[in-house]
Amino acid sequence: MALGKLAYRPEIDGLRAIAVLSVMIYHANLGFLGGGFVGVDVFFVLSGFLISSIILEEGAQGTFSLLSFYKRRVLRIFPALLAMLVVCLVGGWLWFPPVDYRRLAGATMAAIGSYSNIYFYREADYFAPDAITQPLLHTWSLGVEEQFYIVAPFLLLAVLRFPRARLTGFLLLFFASLAFSSVSLFHNPPLSFYMLPSRAFELMTGAALALGLVPPLKNSRLAEVESLTGLALILISAAVYTDATDFPGLAAFVPCLGTALVIHANTAGRTMTGHVLSTAPFVFFGKISYSLYLWHWPFLAFAIFRYGAAIGPVERIALLAAATLVSVLSYALLEQPARRRGARLPATHVIALGVAAILACLLVTKIIRHGDGLPGRLPPAATDFVAANPVRVNLANICVNTTQALPDNAERMDCTIGKPNTPETFLLMGDSHSEALAGGLAAIASANGMAGHLLTRGGCPPLLDLERLSVPFFNDCVERFSRMATLLGPNAITTVILHARWAVYDTGHPTANEPQEHLNSLGDGDPGTNRKVFQAMLKQTVETIRATGRRVVIIAPVPEAGFNVPLEMTKALMRGEDDRFPIERPIFDARQKDVLSFLASLGAIDGVKVLYPHTLLCDEKQCRTSTGGKALYIDDDHLSPAGIALIEPLLRDAILK
């Protein structure tokens, strides 16, 4: 087994520099290195190599101690991390509305508790445009590494005890992780991106070198070729990958392999590539890379949250420069002193201090979360606005005649609404936009002694026969809408209401400020065929429902703001600025022109009626997003209770006529 790799190797600091600078350029969106996120994968390989080397070296010498190992991890990770978390909480206090401050507190808890990757798997899309306004999103990678630190000692010590199983055990775990990453990438991309099992092969790529599974090179020329090839794989990945690259999976193995090649080629002696990576600029950025990784993202996140994504490249470069300055101070005043002075302390004392810091941080974040983001810190106008404007659709008590427990932001509904113990006479089918209307319909139905059925799921267009598209994203929709066969059978339902975010399904993509993924595409990812498929399927759905003798009501599109309305209004009130953000009518018309024309053609079918929310929300010049100090939306495209109140005449028309 290859040991003795613990001497300082400056080219590894050079690799750290490439990794962190790639990530910074990518995050700053400077127009190049669209795949700079692979810098994180370079870090994973380096961590796998270095941590495995330490454990194997000490384990072979009989000096390994779990307490000492975790003491070093605490001293390495916690001082700069805690400082960054505290600064972010202060920044959030000053600039974040309550909903975002509460979310920041949750992310802080996850970061200090080493489960950021799990938290953001549930909460965030790393590649979404609004991801940059979440100051702690980048800590997901720390969660992966810290979870690796938990399992690595036991696995590597087992290798020392059972050396004959070293290669077999490694290959089984490596290929299991790579297979899991590749398969889950197409079935559950966030799971593949964030979770340790799908990233373990990257850390194990570095561990393979520490385990001595790759024989050393004795030919210096081959070493030169290997080192240059490795660096090229890293740089090419950073240059040619984009947010649309299927990642991680096999694509992630390319920069990982490149990193391993550079490490391996420079083990016996330094190559020319190694000499370049060992020069002062690379070593400088490599030494501060941990602090730089921690600090650069919050600088960008707070600035973009405060001033908008339109800040230019000069401002972004200035932010990175400021983050670099703070990182130098963090390295000199926090990282280095903590490691030097902490080395003299007993492991139990260091770990106890770490636990105390965690508990203190958890206490602060619990106060913020239980205080619902502490709205009392805001100016009075902003406090009043927050109190009067929900930021989610509350569906907790909407269902009757059911024992099903539902959260207040349920993504799927299949229940009776309106007056209990009353035959259902209408059916509302659609996506989350239908759910937004459900409360208004339920109130009208209850007041008129009626009941209806709610059959919805977020992201699911109200179309029958979705299964014929073979689009994995729609598998849950197919399951949900399979209930239509029963609901369209003999019963008291006389009206079927269809509503959705029609433009998404018509065009195959959301608004410009949202992720341009074809998750909702009906044309198998081809926008050119999307409209044709959508229109044919909606017409067939309407005709199928009409064939049962029922009336069909189609509620046309709600104007899409393209920005989070209550968030922007709150931010404006916090700054004492104008809180009105209307949608220009030409923007609505351009987005919805084809949809409205097609829906009008369906309205010409006997027994089909189309109702138009924009006639109540828009005039000839603008579409309102607020009225009387209340937001008409809970986000960028779902109507709030105030918005629903404005279109109540339309909803009454849907079920009472």
From TrEMBL:
One Pfam family cited in the UniProt record for this chain: Acyl_transf_3
InterPro entries per record: Acyl_transf_3_dom, Acyltransferase_3, SGNH
PANTHER family found in the cross-reference section: ACETYLTRANSFERASE, ACYL_TRANSF_3 DOMAIN-CONTAINING PROTEIN
GO CC terms of this entry: membrane
Domain SGNH: 410-652
Domain of life: Bacteria
A biological-process GO annotation: lipopolysaccharide biosynthetic process
GO terms, molecular function: acyltransferase activity, transferring groups other than amino-acyl groups
UniProt key word Membrane: yes
Keywords: Membrane, Transmembrane, Transmembrane helix
Domain spans labelled Acyltransferase: 10-331
The protein's name: Acyltransferase
Transmembrane segments: 36-56, 77-96, 147-163, 170-187, 247-264, 276-297, 317-334, 346-368
